[in-house]
Amino acid sequence: MSLLLGTTITVSSNHWMMAWTGLEINTLAIIPLISKSHHPRAIEAATKYFLTQAAASTLLLFSSMTNAWFTGQWDITQLTHPTSCLLLTTAVSIKLGLTPFHFWFPEVLQGSSMTTGLLLATLMKFPPTALLILTSPSLNPTLLTTMAIASAALGGWMGLNQTQIRKVLAFSSISHLGWMTIILLYNPKLTLLTFYLYCLMTSAIFLALNTTKITNLATMMTAWTKIPPLTTTLMLALLSLAGLPPLTGFLPKWLIIQELTKQEMTPVATTIALLSLLGLFFYLRLAYCATITLPPNSSNHMKHWQTNKSVHILITTLISLSILLLPLSPMIFTTT
């Protein structure tokens, strides 16, 4: 309830103090969920999360106070002072995990459970994204474009040599944030659409991984013995998150590249499209591990002789939507 309350307060506020209050409620609400398992890694993740979010909230409050000092405005949309704009971009980047402030996110996600990781990767990113969209006319285009390209590059590059699924999904999230940020100034509605579709696909993958108890590549290789249909559709959901054309994940990338081309930013569009190939490589590796019946090397994990056939209807719905939404793109074209 506190998570929903904090998110609602931040998204619906037009005063900086209320937005800051909502972000603080969110931070304090997620920390018990991260540290619930009482494992040393979980306690470490909760501590890292608290320190980074507290630093980001302090910067955000300092930014709004500086803007109010020089302009007399506490309205979120009236952020006009250059120093305040720079500080706000830094604060929101730390909260989201944009490069070069991404260091905390993979570690925190690795120390959390799958359900808490899902909240960190989706719901907790919504309030900072909303603040970025509200202040987008005042932000520096060069800074945002640089950070977006760096996020797409680092998310793909760092995800290549990971064996832990949660770390792979963390770097995937950083890469997708780059795509959302690069189009923010030119089409904020498209940023929101990308965020919604990212949340849909990530939720499907996290819930499927939670059901099959997959945590790393080795356990993914034997997951087909548990629920074969879910493992097969999980492969398609992973490829959809990668942005392959017949699937839902291709839609936001297609629209973003088209919008960047309209804005005469063809080199930027080409660069970020090429960088997404790095991410495609590790998604393909995950999809390969999810579907093979015999691992290429001997696995230490036991084969499951008793399979669980029941899958929650929510997972089925989310995976279906994350794979099959592309035919609805003409309708989304008209809304954006």
UniProtKB/TrEMBL annotation:
Enzyme class: translocase
One GO CC annotation: mitochondrial inner membrane
Keyword Transferase attributed: no
Transmembrane segments: 15-34, 46-66, 86-105, 142-161, 168-186, 192-209, 230-248, 268-290, 311-333
Domain of life: Eukaryota
Keyword set, alphabetical order: Electron transport, Membrane, Mitochondrion, Mitochondrion inner membrane, NAD, Respiratory chain, Translocase, Transmembrane, Transmembrane helix, Transport, Ubiquinone
Positions of the NADH dehydrogenase subunit 2 C-terminal domain: 280-333
Subcellular location: Mitochondrion inner membrane
UniProt-listed Enzyme Commission number(s): 7.1.1.2
Organism of origin: Scytalopus speluncae
Main location: mitochondrion
Domain NADH:quinone oxidoreductase/Mrp antiporter transmembrane intervals: 13-276
Function: Core subunit of the mitochondrial membrane respiratory chain NADH dehydrogenase (Complex I) which catalyzes electron transfer from NADH through the respiratory chain, using ubiquinone as an electron acceptor. Essential for the catalytic activity and assembly of complex I.
GO BP terms: mitochondrial electron transport, NADH to ubiquinone
Catalytic reactions of this protein: a ubiquinone + NADH + 5 H(+)(in) = a ubiquinol + NAD(+) + 4 H(+)(out)
Signal peptide as annotated in the record: none
Lipid bilayer topology: Multi-pass membrane protein
Name of this chain's protein: NADH-ubiquinone oxidoreductase chain 2
Name of the coding gene: ND2
Molecular function GO labels: NADH dehydrogenase (ubiquinone) activity
